Amino acid sequence: MNKTITATMALAAALSSCASKPKDIEAAYVSSTLYESLSCDRLREEATTVSSRAISASGVQQKKADNDAVAVGVGLVIFWPALFFAKGDGASAAEVSRLKGEMKAIETASIKNNCGIRFEDPTAQPAKKK
Fold this sequence. Notes:
This protein is mainly α. Helices cover 58% and strands 0% of the residues. The chain contains 3 helices and no strands.
């Protein structure tokens, strides 16, 4: 009975420490007032910069999520000490969240200023072809 409880607790701890996939990270709140005074050209420049940083940060976070998934898989199937290599979310997840928030703020300012800037979620996975 104790072994079952211990194994269940270890499994729960390992799974809760996995890094999140970028698409599952919520946007942090960023006020659009930071961007509302910018011209449409300047908003486009900001949008390009923030979008490229978000793509980069999402790549880092996805790699962490993939590495944690491998560590948990190895730990559950082959070698339980591998569970200690699952690092969970950290600074890269916070960066993804902040950049998503900036993208929302820029888009909101763009709507208010009639600039027509729209973002696609850089963390979304491309649709699979059938």
